[in-house]
Design goal:
- By secondary structure, this protein is of the alpha/beta class.
- It has one domain: NAD(P)-binding Rossmann-like Domain (Rossmann fold, 3-Layer(aba) Sandwich).
- The chain is built from seven helices and four strands.
- The chain has a four-stranded parallel β-sheet with strand order 1-2-3-4, sandwiched between helices.
- Helix 3 runs parallel beside helix 5 (118-138).
- The longest helix is centred in the middle third of the chain and has 26 residues, at 67-92.
């Protein structure tokens, strides 16, 4: 289903730009073997990478009654949210432009507020810490690394069919601008951090959340 949706988006972009300038790969980013193969294809077909955007995320609802189940649940959360980003970034790092390369990690405001599944919160918070290491390591090479932390953005796959209306309204009341986020809001922040205009911005967590209103 996701591959089909990606193919349709790929075709739509091709129509907009007037040519087949976009391609996509379906890869298990938690598999070192699969990522190695992807890196080889990118090296052969493109040679250089300008921007790496890690946008995988989510949290499974596995049972956590026993310690074995707790361990499986937490490992799965870190695989999806952290390991996928680490393997892709490390794999493509030799191909990343120097200077001018950009790394953007997509975290979540859950890592600030603590809302949501605890494994998801911890995994996204790990990205916020990792970006500091990336920024220090890669800054001397002219590469920046930043995090975008979206707030409540219901029109995304993360929220599926959406939240119950009462919960939706409760969350929106806590947003200063009075509305939920849109995918375009997040995309604009990513676009900025990936652009030459952000060459002096690195190691930052940019919240795209509409402002948080303290509890009454």
């Amino acid at each position: 289903m996701l591959a089909k949706a990606t193919a349709e988006i790929n075709a739509d972009i091709g129509v907009e730009v007037g040519g087949p300038l976009v391609t996509f790969e379906s890869v298990d980013l938690t598999s070192p073997t699969d990522v190695d193969a992807l890196v080889d294809r990118v090296r052969e077909n493109h040679g250089r990478v300008d921007v790496i955007i890690n946008n995988a995320g989510g949290a499974s609802r596995l049972p956590t009654g026993t310690l074995e189940e707790v361990a499986a649940h937490w490992r799965a959360a870190f695989d999806v949210n952290v390991l996928s980003a680490v393997l892709l970034t490390q794999g493509l790092l030799p191909l990343l432009a120097r200077p001018g390369g950009r790394i953007v990690l997509v975290s979540s405001m859950a890592s600030r507020s603590g809302g949501g599944a605890s494994s998801y919160v911890a995994a996204k918070a790990a990205l916020n810490g990792w970006v500091l290491s990336l920024a220090a390591q890669l800054g001397p090479q002219g590469i920046t690394a930043n995090v975008v932390a979206p707030g409540y953005t219901p029109r995304t796959e993360l929220f599926g069919d959406g939240l119950p209306q009462a919960l939706h309204d409760q969350i929106v009341r806590r947003i200063a601008v009075g509305r939920p986020g849109e995918p375009e809001d997040v995309a604009a922040a990513v676009r900025y951090l990936a652009s030459p205009d952000a060459s002096f911005v690195t190691g930052q967590v940019l919240e795209v959340a509409g402002g948080s209103v303290p509890p009454a």
